[in-house]
Amino acid sequence: MSEQLSKGLEGVLVAESSLSDIDGDAGQLIYRGYDIEDLAREASYEEVLHLLWYGELPTEQQLAEFSDSMAADRAVSGGVLDTLADLAEADETPMAALRTGVSLLSAAEPEPDKDVEDADATRREGRRIVAKIPTILAAYDRLRRGEEPIEPREDLSYAGNFLYMLTGEEPGGVAEETFDMALILHADHGLNASTFTAMVIASTQADLYSAVTGGIGALSGPLHGGANQDVMEVLQEVDGSSKDPLQWVKDRIDAGGRIPGWGHRVYNVKDPRAKILQSKLADLSEETGESKWLDYTSTIEEYLTGEMELPAKGIAPNVDYYSGSVYYNLGIPIDMYTPIFAMSRSGGWVAHVLEYWQDNRLIRPRGRYVGPKPRPFVPVDER
Ligand SMILES: CC(C)(COP(=O)(O)OP(=O)(O)OC[C@H]1O[C@@H](n2cnc3c(N)ncnc32)[C@H](O)[C@@H]1OP(=O)(O)O)[C@@H](O)C(=O)NCCC(=O)NCCS
Question: Which of 11, 236, 241, 293 is the right S-S partner for 325, CB 3.0 to 4.6 Å?
Answer without folding.
Answer: 293
